[in-house]
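Progress against Task 2.4 (sequence-to-structure conversion) is shown through the following example record, which the project officer requested during the mid-term review.
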Amino acid sequence: MTLPPEDLEEFPYDMPLQESELIERSAMIQYGFSQNSVAAFDLAMRGDYAEKLGELVAARTLANQAIMYDISCIDAHRILASTSMPFAGNDSMMEMLLSIASLFHETIFPQAVACGNSVKRQILLSPYMRLISSIGVHAYNAAKRQKLCVDSLEEVLRLETQFFKVKKSNEYTLSHLALSYIQAAGAPTNRKSKYLDNFDKFLNFLAENKNSIKIQVNNNQNNGNNNINVNGLNNEMNRSMNRENFIQQNPMMAESSSVDSVSDAETVRKREIEEFQRLIEKQRQENDEENQENLQNEKSENKNEDEKRIPNLPHRNIRHLIELLSKYGNYIDDSVFIICKLVIFYNYRKYIQKIHQNKANDINNLNFIQTWQEVSDEISQSYPNIISQILDDSRPTKFDFSIALSSWLDLVVDFHDHLRGSDSEFYSQLHNKYGLIEMTFIKNRKKRQNVAKKGFSALDKSRDFLKDRKLMKGLNQCTLSKQYFDTANYPSNRCYLNTPFPVISNRAFAASHFNMWEIVCHDARLTLAKNCRHINSYLQLPNIASSFGCNELILRFKEIINTVNILKKDPQSPENKWTELAKESIALTSLTAFVLSKEGKLNEEVIDHLTKIGVEDYNFHIPSNPYIVEPLEWLCDNDIMF
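Structure tokens generated for the chain above:
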């Protein structure tokens, strides 16, 4: 194959490449990547842009073409999986994305780690970092997969810290990690962080970074406009300087000592910090019990809490959130940062109250030591979209704060009471709103059964639609049915354990008529894991291989079908033969098998290895071994589960 012409103007080839993507593309050419790999990257990145624009058909077209150039193109597989979500649902999409992560670790990751050239290693790792960032964001939006969200987004930072000289994680990734920390920190088993050292660190960060300016909006209007007084440096300039310093690996902020007003402001901030240190030390001395609490106590307490911990809930608390903000706070979205600030100040509200009560008379200003009520007022003035989302249940635009605050309902209630006063109707709406999220954490057997009944009802509707050849409606009902069963099966993420196989097999049948072969492949594998005698799933195998360009596997799948035809004629055919046939089919339809087949590396030893994995690649464990990729500096042993 040859590279697609660069001067194509017709849609969808006219999708532009971003500057970072052009740099990565040039590096691939410079370091000897094949023409097919470069062409696949080019098409996949255009498909990625098309997906962001909502052009799903164009995105899928480009991704499929990229796979024809290079079947190991991680970005192309990611786009196919993510664009399948409107049809397959979030849970199935997550399973497909995790199988891509499994593919990367089976084929590319060992090569990347062993690579002696740092630039080439970064080129190999970049698609995987985009993949796990996508997994983390989707897991956050799924509400019930907190651990997967945290593991994925933290893995991006781990790889960046160890293998990259510049920052690869973007604002979107870091902001979602901060929100996931908020969600985890609000759980009863994680609300244990009361250490003043952590609070001290966050306030120092505010004083040195985010609060280097103070914006005040006056109520008096002149000529119909609000007067805005800005003291200090411009916020955007300050953030831009921080980004440049980050890339240059300079941990210190750039100083503008040539401006007298800036120097004076820095002197004031230093005095404020020193004064705060004195006050906080006084507070420590007044409370010996709190003074004795430390990180070691937290470790021992958490060991006793492990059995009580909610499934899939990571051990992340306010301490972890503060550490994240202290290092990456300048690269997190402003609206997300102020929610983090609200949560932290609310968590430490008792300490802040004591600090304000004990302030010395000679202190003129401690602006960065705000009460949570003052932060609420700041949100009300500067971020009305956050108010409408939290209090009025408006649709999220960029970040869904309701998921992060689902474990901080006490804060949401106090937040509402402070801004709008007590309202029983709001409390009722709040219960209903977060009750929907609670449905994903069902522990009551009767409620599980009721949700499962809805799953069977949706399955019956899908059968009716398929009989009437209303294939898209049938596909959607199958997806709805699977989502009900996934909810009823929580905390298990293995849908094939208790979900009736017709839910998945019927969806595979419908998806095949729309050429959604990634869905057909996913569902056929799960169907055979549930029912090794399902004939139609075997008949789809050659079509699946053909859709991925794996002509080498088509002959083998035809041999499997011949064996199936022989076995089905014998009513007494041994079950173990069907089981072995299903396991072989599941192994050969994995993405790893497709890639190795195209590369001529699919031997019997590899097939045996893939047979042992089976469909567990849909539940791939993201975090890399700590001996290969170092854990984040703010995580202790009890925080990490590899």
